[in-house]
Amino acid sequence: MTHTAGRPAARTRGRLAEISALGTRPGSRRHPLVAIAMVLPLAALLAVVFGGVEAVITQASSVAGLLGL
Known about the structure:
Strand content: under 5%
Radius of gyration: 22 Å
Number of helices: 3
Structural class: mainly alpha
Largest sheet: none
Helix content: over 70%
Distance between the termini: 74 Å
Oligomer: single chain
Number of strands: 0
Mean pLDDT: 78
Order of helices and strands: HHH
């Protein structure tokens, strides 16, 4: 029984490795679009939660004012 206890954990690690390898190139680097797709939802959530949206709007309007738009 001691030999069978480690098998499910090894299988689970194998599956997790396969899932985390999605979108990776043979050189173990992710494709840039896959990286963006992973990061954007979290970035949007953090921007809304911490008020970053208002800061971006304020800065964009300041830049537009400098450009005369």
